[in-house]
Amino acid sequence: MKSKLLHPATIAAQALGWTDPQTGAVVLPVHVATTFQRDPDNQYRRGRGYGRADNPTYDQPQALLTALEGGADSLLFASGMAAAAAVFQSLPRSAHVVAPRVMYWGLRNWLSNFAENWGISVDFVDATSPDVLRMAMRPGSTRLVWIETPANPLWSITDIAAAAEIAHAAGAILAVDSTAATPVLTRPTALGADLVMHSATKYLNGHSDVIAGSLTTAHKDEFWERIARTRSSGGAILGSFEAYLLLRGMRTLFARVERACRSAQQVAEALCAYPRIVEVLYPGLAAHPGHMVARRQMAGGFGGMLSIRVKGGAAAAITAAARVEVWQRATSLGGVESLIEHRASIEGPDSPVPPDLLRLSVGIEDAADLIADLEAALAG
Ligand code: PLP
Predict the structure, then answer these.
(1) pTM of the model
(2) Residue 104 falls in the annotated catalytic set
(3) Distances (CA, A) of 260 to 83, 191, 240, 324, 348
(4) How far is the CA of 200 from the centre of ligand 1 (A)?
(5) Which of 58, 73, 104, 108 is labelled catalytic?
(6) What's the CATH number of domain 254-379, 3.40.50.620, 3.40.50.300, 3.60.150.10, 3.90.1150.10?
């Protein structure tokens, strides 16, 4: 398939148009072999030796992700956390890292509790401010700037191009957790990012039935090779069946994300006018502090994630979440079903999340049902 000439939605729907050369099947077989034959002269000319390093079922989803992100190569991992950890574990010892204060709490916890074991020091800063980011750089020792945009669960926006310029000027690389934006809305490599990470558990898969992660690189360099070795030697690999399910989900990525964005915008606008709401946090609203940057770096929508702050504090928020009938009370995001969650209950006392905040992951249901259900739950 001449993927350069086609729109990303076409490339995704056809999964690059790959077919099985032996059978003509339009869906490739799932390879379950853990080992591969050597040639009689002791070589591995077909390029694969052992399943932990070389899984043919990864080829198509990794190639598709590379095409959608406009990168040079991609790697699948056992989870989003495994993908992120592989980046940090591949840094040289004594590396300094700059990370955002508002970010996926699991990774913030990992950085706070484990990064030191790998000789890494981390500064958590307000990454939405280029000036603050610039001040946090320590030229010569800062190796990596990690950002997430839109960032969990306030959906704050970081200017990717500005962050890339700041990181590069200090001799560091920029990695972007683009889970909430998806390649449908943002291509961080086109804005200067060096690495893009996804919790593929979320929108890429889209059906709440696979835990997976991915990294895409803008350049196949020495650091990328180290990350690949971290995966194959550390063993944080995805199962073959999960890789197949992930690819299957990615084929409907554009349809799902476009609908989720449309509905999220409608939900956000409807709730803005609702008396029991203190604040609606959604980058698609003109009042959101990151709206103008989001308009620049997100195309086609502002994502399917938003949060609301409920009048009456944590107790009122938890009570409203208890009353929904269409939304599911569950953690995670990016699936076809809409989820609602009292975020502070998950993140604990060190979190920057306000206690009255409910995080909403908008699925692909009819937006009118989602809005009516929330309004009824808030009304009591
Ligand atoms: N990044 C973001 C933005 C997430 O929301 C999550 C999971 O919720 C992760 C990373 C971690 O991904 P996983 O749960 O696939 O390990």
Answers:
(1) 0.98
(2) yes
(3) 25, 24, 28, 19, 28
(4) 8
(5) 104
(6) 3.90.1150.10
